[in-house]
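Order emerges. One example.
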Amino acid sequence: MTTYKKVTLRKGKEESLRRFHPWVFSGAIDHIDDTIEEGDVVAVYAADGTLIGNGHFQVGSITVRMLTWGDSPVDADFYAQRLEAAAKLRMALGLMRSDNNAFRLVHGEGDFLPGLVIDVYGSTAVLQAHSPGMHFDRFKVAEALTKLPQLGVNNVYYKSETTLPYKAALEAENGYIVGKYDTDIAMENGLRFHVDWLRGQKTGFFVDQRENRSLLERYSSGRRVLNMFCYTGGFSFYALRGGAEVVHSVDSSAKAVNLTNDNVALNFPDDPRHRAFATDAFKYLAEMQHGQYDLIILDPPAFAKHKSALKNALIGYRKLNGKAFEKIAPGGILFTFSCSQAVTREQFRLAVFSAAAQSRRKVRILHQLSQPADHPINIYHPEGEYLKGLVLYVE
């Protein structure tokens, strides 16, 4: 039997764990061994002394993230098995192809590895820890990654400076823990793009919009497209391949606009249909002409990273979509998204509905979108659903 330091729950507080929910909240805990430190693997016991499983300990509201159930150890073999299972799923999804080498390999709780995110871009995996325990286990994870022959990963870049809890004072530094810089060009559905994992947001690219970008491509032929909050321009170069008449990309970050231009040039060099602008989104929407675009993409950063910001976030979504409804051409199509985990699907839909009603235009829902299959949702952890989207036809 593996011996870990103990966390004992209050009476009756083990019920959610019996249903395989992977979080232990601080309020559920009766006793913690004195010698437990941040990031330790701990054994979680019910009040009657029954072992429930093992997980990573940290100070905070979510005190333990469960990794195993029963007496299964959290060791190198555990990570090898979990990463093997994650890779098998991505192979079954058909994501490892000659025309596609960018995908999410590990999606935290969705792959039964809470606190860990791994995105693969060709021969480089970008590893992101969201808990002290995963930070301390990063070398075990990296070693297991490079031993999976189907992945072909030779380089592992660790990028967790901004994702680890600051109170833990871990002083994590971004950098290669296996290999070195190889190339920053990856491929998605036959389209190439630069990935800025060194300085870019998240792991450098938003692979969670892959399927939604493909859907946009099918609607783009002959349309005048506006890609708001373009970041690296993913929706833009899909629209160009789909036969758009014109594509304009907008982001408040000049660096993002430069990266968008670089990505468009990789696939459509010197294409006169595309222009990019570094300016505020609301300002651009307010100043553009009525009917200038008949396909608009609204994919803003998270308006509500915590529930405390929920009210303002919903106001923001309503205003943003309201301006799009006001300006889009008759017969236009609006792709609109929320990546705020604190905003439910119903709340986002209500905010968009309110904006549509205020515009007094006829609006129909064509598609209701979500995150792709390489961002799976653990059925026991519905909180893992974060990406919401609607495709709307506006008369």
